[in-house]
Design brief:
Blueprint: E1 6-8, E2 17-22, E3 37-46, H1 51-56, E4 60-67, E5 69-71, H2 76-81, E6 86-89, E7 95-100, E8 103-109, H3 113-116, H4 124-146
Parallel strand pairs: 1-2
Antiparallel strand pairs: 2-5, 3-4, 3-6, 6-7, 7-8
């Protein structure tokens, strides 16, 4: 992102440019030893036209979180200019996922898909990743026959 002294508050809170900082809207009445943002959070808005939206086929979802840090809103511009649009936002406009339009599975989420994936009902991101991996493998096998 071409920012000198860019860092995370977890690693270096005194950095000049703290890109990743503590979660701004912690869960009320959370346990003191638990992550600040934990549990199911409703109203995660997914940007239409994004890969994420094509996976969910919904505009609003509920997701499971287990974290203490998020993108500092003061540096969202740098994330976007680096080629990573924000494709999911929380109920108060917080960045909750970014992706690379150039790479279908370069997706970073603050929520954790594995927490809500269940036997017989895999999370949409996990399911689409597995489908893409199977397709890629089949295409590689087809290509190897021609070599």
């Amino acid at each position: 992102m071409d920012l000198a002294d860019a860092d995370s508050a977890e690693n270096n809170p005194a950095a000049k440019n703290v890109i990743i900082h503590p979660v701004a809207c912690a869960i009320p009445n959370g346990k003191s030893d638990a992550p600040k943002l934990a549990g199911a959070i409703p109203e995660i808005r997914i940007r239409p036209g994004s890969y994420l939206h094509s996976f969910y086929k919904k505009d609003v979802v509920t997701e499971e979180f287990f974290c203490n840090y998020e993108v500092n809103p003061d540096f969202e511009w740098a994330v976007i200019e680096a080629g990573f649009p924000i494709v999911a936002r929380g109920p108060n406009g917080e960045a909750r996922a970014i992706e690379s339009p150039a790479h279908r599975f370069f997706i970073a989420t603050l929520f954790q898909p594995q927490l809500s994936s269940k036997p017989g009902k895999p999370h949409p991101i996990i399911l689409e990743f597995l489908r893409a991996a199977a397709k890629w493998k089949a295409e590689k096998l087809d290509d190897s026959v021609l070599e």
